[in-house]
Amino acid sequence: AEHGGPAEWNGTGETADGQRVKVLGNVGSQADAEAAVAAGAEGVGLFRTEFCYLDAASEPTVEQQRGAYTAVLEPFRGKPVVVRTLDAGADKPLAFLAQEEEPNPALGVRGLRVAFDRPDLLDRQLEAIAAAAADSGAEVSVMAPMVATAAEAAWFAERVHAAGIARAGVMIEIPAAALAAREILDVVEFVSVGTNDLAQYAFGADRQLGAVAELNDPWQPALLRLISFVGEAAIETGKPAGVCGEAAADPLLARVLAGLGVSSLSMNAAAVRAVGASLAGATLDECRTAARAALAAPTPQAARVAAGGVHP
Ligand code: PEP
Ligand code: MG
C-alpha cells in the first residue's frame, strides 16, 4: 500500500486514536441510496435533488417531491442525511423556470441565487423535504448550494427553520464563502465544502473543460489552504464542517482533510470502504502532520508525496 493502515474497516469513521470523521455517501437517486447503504456509508453527506426537477415539464408538486425524496431517505432511517436544495442554473436549465441566457452560466443565477427571485420554489421544496423526513425517519438536515456570503446563509437558514427543519447549512464552494466561514458558521448549524466548484472558482478553471483539468486537482495546496480556513472556523465555533466534493473520495486526501479540521466526508459508494480504512490507519496527529506538509508543498504532486503518498 502507498500508505499504512488496515485494509479492513469496522464501519465507524474514525482515526486510529478515535477522532470521529463520519464516512457518508453522495446520492442522487434511490439506486445510489441503496448502493451507499450496501457500501457501509454511515449516512448521506450530499443528497442531490436535481433528479426530481430536471426532466419535469412543470414544477413537481409538493406531494410528488415528498414521494421521490422519501424513497431515497427510507434506507437511512435513524441516520443523518444532508439534503441539498435545488442546484439549477443557466447551465442546467429547467423547463418550467424561465431564465435569461447568460454569457457565463457558472457565474450567473444558479443554486441558491435562483431562490432569491423565486422564494416560493424553495419554500415548496422545503415543505416536501420536511414531510419526507417525517415519513422516512431519517435525521434530515438541509443545505444550500452556491452561497457567497453570510447574509445569504442567514436568509436561507431562516427559511429552513421556518419550514420546521432544525438544521440548516450551506455549501462552501465559492472562495469568498471559504474566507467568510467563521461569519457563515455563526448563522448556520454546519457547512460542507464542495471541492469541485470551490476548485473551479478558486483557480478560474471551468470544471467541465479538459484543457484546464490540471488546475482542478483536489491536491492543489491553495485549495487545501481554503479548506483549512473552513476547518479552523469549524473548530473555533464548535460546529461541523464536512467535505462532499470529489476530494473526499481519495483515501490519502481524506487524512489531510481530517487533519484540517473536517469532521465528515461524503463520497461515491465505491470509495466508502477505502476511505474508512485509511482514516482508521492514522492518528489525528498524523493526519495533522500530513495536512501541514501538504499545505506547504509547491505543487499538487508534491503535496501528495508530502502527505505520505507515492509520486503518481
Ligand atoms: C461540488 O461542487 O463539489 C459539489 C459536491 O457539488 P456538485 O458537484 O453537485 O456541483
Ligand atoms: Mg457544486
UniProtKB/TrEMBL annotation:
Task: Kindly state a single biological-process term from the GO annotations of this entry.
Answer: phosphoenolpyruvate-dependent sugar phosphotransferase system
EC number, as in UniProt: 2.7.3.9
Query: Which residues are listed for Mg(2+) binding in this entry?
Result: E173, D197
> Which keywords appear in this protein's UniProt record, sorted alphabetically?
Cytoplasm, Kinase, Magnesium, Metal-binding, Phosphotransferase system, Pyruvate, Sugar transport, Transferase, Transport
Give GO terms: molecular function aspect only: kinase activity; metal ion binding; phosphoenolpyruvate-protein phosphotransferase activity
Cofactor(s) required for function per UniProt: Mg(2+)
Active site positions:
C244
| Origin superkingdom | Bacteria
Where in the cell does this protein reside?
Answer: Cytoplasm
- Record domain PEP-utilising enzyme C-terminal: where: 14-280
**What EC class is this?**
transferase
**Which reactions appear under catalytic activity for this entry?**
L-histidyl-[protein] + phosphoenolpyruvate = N(pros)-phospho-L-histidyl-[protein] + pyruvate
Listed binding positions for phosphoenolpyruvate are R48, R84, N196, D197, R207
What's an example GO cellular component term for this entry? Answer: cytoplasm
Stated family:
Belongs to the PEP-utilizing enzyme family.
Q: What does the record give as the function of this protein? A: General (non sugar-specific) component of the phosphoenolpyruvate-dependent sugar phosphotransferase system (sugar PTS). This major carbohydrate active-transport system catalyzes the phosphorylation of incoming sugar substrates concomitantly with their translocation across the cell membrane. Enzyme I transfers the phosphoryl group from phosphoenolpyruvate (PEP) to the phosphoryl carrier protein (HPr).
Protein name per Swiss-Prot or TrEMBL: Phosphoenolpyruvate-protein phosphotransferase
Q: Which organism is this protein's natural source? A: Amycolatopsis marina
Q: Say which residues of the entire protein are included here.
A: 235 to 546 of 546
